[in-house]
Amino acid sequence: MDNPNQMQAPELRTLQILTEIEQGGSITQRSLATKLGVALGLTNLYLKRLAKKGYIKVTTLPRNRVKYLLTPRGIAEKTRLTYEYMTYSLRQYLRARQLLQNSLRPLVQQPHRRIAFYGTGEAAEVAFICLKEIGLEPSAVFDDAHDGQFLGMPVHPLGDLAHEEFDRIVVTSLGSKKLTQARMDKLAALGIPQEKVVNLRV
Length: 202
What we know:
The chain is built from 6 helices and 8 strands. α1 packs across α4, α2 packs across α3 (40-52) and α4 crosses α5 (122-133). The relative contact order is 0.11. It folds into 2 domains: 9-70, Winged helix-like DNA-binding domain superfamily/Winged helix DNA-binding domain (Arc Repressor Mutant, subunit A), CATH 1.10.10.10; 98-199, Rossmann fold (3-Layer(aba) Sandwich), CATH 3.40.50. It is α/β, with parallel strands linked by helices.
């Protein structure tokens, strides 16, 4: 079971939608679905629910266009969800910092401290900050989608990890149990010893 204190996916989606609508501009269901990374039909369902709850108002414009507006009730809900998200994010950061400190502090005194990251994004940025606080930093970054860079470091394909030397690999995912398990399974398939893996999701 997931941590009861963490924000659930529907709440995060609601916050994302209310934020996009508050920012104004030309928003369509299709553009919103793309930003959220969900199907168009699911986006339509979310918008209908938000309108039914009185969080947004749907106005029809000329040329069959639709405009979404945030209601006072919607503004209040966005404020509440924003506070919850900030509290949740801080809690995740503190947990990740404590976990990394406990797991990696013994490596601080070693001459060769090779810490690899599996995954990029927000969780990896949190892990990077936590590492810096104990005098460490990642030596390499790997991901399934190995495009671009992460904080100035090249991102390598996960398959290269089997040929790399490292002391620990940090699985940089926080909120998604499914994503974390998928990454753990891929590392196991590559023959990475479990004792070398540090899982941020606790």
